[in-house]
Design goal:
This is Transmembrane protein 115. Keywords: Membrane, Transmembrane, Transmembrane helix. Pfam families: DUF1751. One of its GO terms (cellular component) is Golgi apparatus. This protein is mainly alpha-helical. It has helices spanning about 1-10, 10-20, 25-40, 45-50, 55-60, 80-95, 95-100, 100-130, 135-140, 145-160, 180-190, 200-215, 245-260, 290-335, 340-345, and strands at about 165-170, 170-175, 270-275, 280, 355, 365-370. It has 2 domains: about 10-230, Rhomboid-like (Rhomboid-like fold); about 270-315. It contains 15 helices and 6 strands. The chain has a two-stranded antiparallel ribbon. Strands 3-4 form a two-stranded antiparallel ribbon. Strands 5-6 form a two-stranded antiparallel ribbon. Helix 3 packs antiparallel against helix 6 (about 80-95), helix 6 (about 80-95) packs parallel to helix 10 and helix 11 runs antiparallel to helix 12. The longest helix has about 45 residues, at about 290-335. It is globular.
């Protein structure tokens, strides 16, 4: 009861924060948030959960319930998951959508969720082939936006890889290591029974699929595809000590994909481009879209800083003006006007003395006349 009272007291504050978060977002972001809330209300019915979620055994032939891949993502059964989903989608509308555009953002949303449904089903099918446990195919219900949250963490890592999140005694936590850390935490929570087994599967699927799309398939306005920057390679998700090992394991598979044309090779080049604005230099491992993305982020941060500085300067000038007016009023109240006395006004003025100088040839001394 005490927790419920505290929550009821904080409802106006939470409503204000959510309205500020979703205030300037696009209609697509607001639509996703509203549908997630509706899905949480519908999740109290077990029949609705069975129908709308992805069941691995029913997604495969002969049932082939492909329509569940379009409905499972808005079905959440925990309130904390709904809150996290709304906050994440709102931040996407603030950070990623202005850089990509609304259509690219929705394309990324649907491709990630549909891919997570099929890849998670494939995971359970492989586990079933080892264990022959039919409950893995018909008693497991895949639902929620865990895969999309993982995809968002990968996109944020691509945009701001070195952004500091928190300082810990073990080191600094940045966006670069966020997807892997959350995956490890989800596996540990599933091992102790605090989290469903579908959550780490969906998170791993969303991380892998979003990286493949952003690395090789995403089309940019310049006509290029993907992001072949060195700081966005797959081994960069792991700690520095493990990166050579991961790179050595993945190199043969990457070469095979390049030979059959599934992905483009990672080229290292230095390109000089002459234009009216100057000389553009592309250094190895940095793609043009990566440079443009960093430039836009820097311009956004600079504009926010300048707006804060101008607001502080305006307030400072306003306070200074108010203080000066107060000082002037205090000075004017203490000044006593001086008027001439009656004797001074009655006495005639003294005659002015004029000096006339004769400029004739005779060098006589100047004569002085009084008028």
């Amino acid at each position: 009861m005490a927790a419920l009272r505290v929550f009821s007291r904080n409802i106006p504050y939470l409503r204000q924060q959510f309205s500020a978060l979703l205030g300037n977002t696009s209609p697509s972001v607001k639509f996703i948030c509203v549908v997630v809330v509706i899905g949480y209300i519908l999740s109290f019915s077990e029949d609705v959960v069975d129908v709308l979620s992805v069941t691995p055994g029913y997604l495969l032939p002969p049932s082939f319930q492909l329509w569940s891949t379009f409905t499972f993502w808005f079905l959440e059964i925990h309130l904390w998951e709904v809150i996290i989903d709304i906050i994440t989608v709102g931040l996407c509308g603030k950070l990623i959508e202005p850089l990509w555009g609304q259509m690219e953002m929705m394309k990324f949303f649907f491709l990630t969720n549909i891919g997570v449904a099929f890849l998670t089903t494939f995971y359970y099918l492989v586990i079933y082939s080892w264990t022959q446990d039919t409950s893995l195919l018909f008693d497991i219900h895949v639902h929620g936006l865990a895969g999309y949250l993982a995809a968002v963490s990968v996109a944020v890592k691509q945009i701001m890889p070195d952004h500091l999140l928190i300082k810990t005694p073990l080191g600094k936590l940045t966006n670069r290591s966020l997807p892997l850390l959350i995956l490890i935490a989800a596996i540990l929570l599933w091992a102790v029974g605090a989290l469903e087994g579908t959550y780490p599967c969906m998170w791993g699927s969303g991380t892998l699929l979003s990286w493949i799309y952003l690395r090789f398939l995403q089309r940019h306005s310049s006509g290029t595809r993907g992001d072949m920057a060195e700081n966005f390679s797959f081994d960069n998700f792991f700690p520095t000590v493990l990166q050579p090992i991961v790179r050595g394991i993945l190199r043969p598979g990457h070469r095979c994909c390049v030979r059959i044309g599934l992905c483009s090779p990672s080229t290292r080049r230095v390109h000089l481009a002459l234009s009216n604005r100057g000389v553009g230099v592309i250094i190895p491992g940095v793609e043009p879209q990566d440079m443009e993305r960093r430039r836009q982020i820097a311009l956004k941060a600079l504009s926010e800083r300048l707006s804060k500085t101008s607001e502080q300067t305006r307030q400072k000038n306003l306070s200074t003006k108010v203080n000066m007016e107060a000082v002037r009023k205090m000075q004017s109240s203490h000044v006593i006007p001086q008027f001439p006395t009656e004797t001074e006004t009655s006495q005639p003025a003294a005659p002015a003395e004029t000096t006339l100088i004769d400029i004739s040839a005779d060098p006589s001394p100047p004569t002085t006349k009084t008028s």
